[in-house]
Amino acid sequence: MLTFTATLTVKAGHEQEFERIMSIAVPKVREEPGNQTYIFHRSTQDPRVFMLYEEYDDQAALEAHRAHLRVMGIDLLALLDGPPIVEFYEKLA
C-alpha cells in the first residue's frame, strides 16, 4: 500500500479554478482501480494551500492514476506556485 500526502500551493487568483477542477477530478479518481483513498483538503490558514491524502494498492496503481489525470486533460502543475510537497507514510494501524 502506498500512502502519501501532496501539499499544493496554487498561484494567487487561481484558487477557485483549482477547486473547480478538483471537484470534477476527485470522484473520477476514487473510481480508479487500485485507488483506496483520495481526499481533497484546503488549508484553514492559507486559502492557496491544498492537501491531498492518497492511498493506492501499489506503484502500478499510482502510475495508472497519473496517466488517468493526463487523459482527463488535467495539468495541475500549470496552476501551482512551486512544486508539490509529497510525503510518503507507512501505515501502522
Write up this protein.
The protein has helices at 15-30, 59-71; strands spanning 2-9, 35-42, 49-56, 85-89. The two termini are 13 Å apart. The chain is α+β, with helices and mostly antiparallel strands. It is built from 2 helices and 4 strands. The protein has one domain: 2-Layer Sandwich (Alpha-Beta Plaits), CATH 3.30.70.100. Strand 2 (35-42) and strand 3 (49-56) form a beta hairpin. It is globular, with a radius of gyration of 13 Å.
Secondary-structure map with pairings?
Elements: E1 2-9, H1 15-30, E2 35-42, E3 49-56, H2 59-71, E4 85-89
Antiparallel strand pairs: 1-3, 1-4, 2-3
Characterize the main sheet.
4 strands, antiparallel
Number of domains: 1
**Broad CATH class:** Alpha Beta
Coarse shape: globular
Stated plainly, the CATH topology is called Alpha-Beta Plaits
* Overall SS class: alpha+beta
Strand content: 25-35%
For the record, the CATH architecture stands as 2-Layer Sandwich
Low-confidence stretches: none
- Number of beta strands: 4
Radius of gyration: 13 Å
Distance between the termini: 13 Å
Count of helical stretches: 2
Q: What sequence of helices (H) and strands (E) makes up the elements?
A: EHEEHE
Q: Roughly how much helix do the residues carry, as a percent range?
A: 25-40%
State mean pLDDT (0 to 100 scale).
95
Query: What is the strand arrangement across the widest sheet?
Result: 2-3-1-4
